[in-house]
Amino acid sequence: xxxxxxxxxxxxxxxxxxxxxxxxxxxxxxxxxxxxxxxxxxxxxxxxxxxxxxxxxxxxxxxxxxxxxxxxxxxxxxxxxxxxxxxxxxxxxxxxxxxxxxxxxxxxxxxxxxxxxxxxxxxxxxxxxxxxxxxxxxxxxxxxxxxxxxxxxxxxxxxxxxxxxxxxxxxxxxxxxxxxxxxxxxxxxxxxxxxxxxxxxxxxxxxxxxxxxxxxxxxxxxxxxxxxxxxxxxxxxxxxxxxxxxxxxxxxxxxxxxxxxxxxxxxxxxxxxxxxxxxxxxxxxxxxxxxxxxxxxxxxxxxxxxxxxxxxxxxxxxxxxxxxxxxxxxxxxxxxxxxxxxxxxxxxxx
Length: 350
Description:
Strand order of the largest sheet: 7-8-9-3-10-11
GO molecular function: ABC-type ferric iron transporter activity; ABC-type quaternary ammonium compound transporting activity; ATP binding; ATP hydrolysis activity
Protein name: ABC-type quaternary amine transporter
Radius of gyration: 24 Å
Distance between the termini: 43 Å
Number of helices: 8
Low-confidence stretches: none
Number of strands: 21
CATH topology of the largest domain: Rossmann fold
Keywords: ATP-binding, Cell membrane, Ion transport, Iron, Iron transport, Membrane, Nucleotide-binding, Transport
Order of helices and strands: EEEHEEEEHHHEHEHEEHHEEEEEEEEEE
CATH class of the largest domain: Alpha Beta
Shape: globular
Strand content: 35-45%
EC number: 7.6.2.9
CATH architecture of the largest domain: 3-Layer(aba) Sandwich
Pfam family, one: FbpC-like_RD
Number of domains: 2
């Protein structure tokens, strides 16, 4: 029997003769959060709808808590899959109160149902006294928490979140997703989240799956996919990056930044290195200084807590350095660029 809460194998789906998902594989461990991140139209919402049971796959299989719910010729209906689903806008019933929304689908006496509603509202950090309010009387963040409480009410084996924070403003989105992540972890609920927000995926997930054109380009822990993305698309999609041509010999790369250690397992020969801008530190030096890793700051973009410097090394493409915004090198300053940690090597060789 599988030890995974969700097991997706060879999943394929198309509409009107146009393929959307192409042989997708994904395993999710119990009690963890997996974020599927990708640009609009890449297939991530279709994947979620297939897991929920709103669509039928063309090929492949889906198993939830060890029970196959979709495979060739057989598809368990959505209401029998033991999943909770929170849509982008919460999808609360506007004519029902908060308490009635949370209680929707619960069975039992009125007294036990109300006690369960109060428990769930407290779980999502809402005052049980809010049970008499209508959805339009709540903030966007409160509505999402009510939607989460409703989804948790039936104690699903799997929670599905479809861009649940994208309709909120920036500050509220950050605080709401932090609160939701804490609640899901405390409840030990296995969760599959789809989002186009890279920061969101990296900040709350135990596992990140990057999707492009209906396929996963990289699946791993947030740290793994960010620092060792594997290909140019994944590297650039997850944030600013520095790509450098190099020659590797015995675990050390020779490149425009001198000799840089690379991650274990990199084969000797021509390669492309990946560094994140925060792995680089630019320090002002005297005009007469000589040696490796020297360049000139050609532009500076102040961002408050940090600053993005573009440094011209005199050969190849300029590089981007991200460092603290307090007293950074100025434009036209001569700097030495040092590397923190190791560089990753793209799977694609030149």
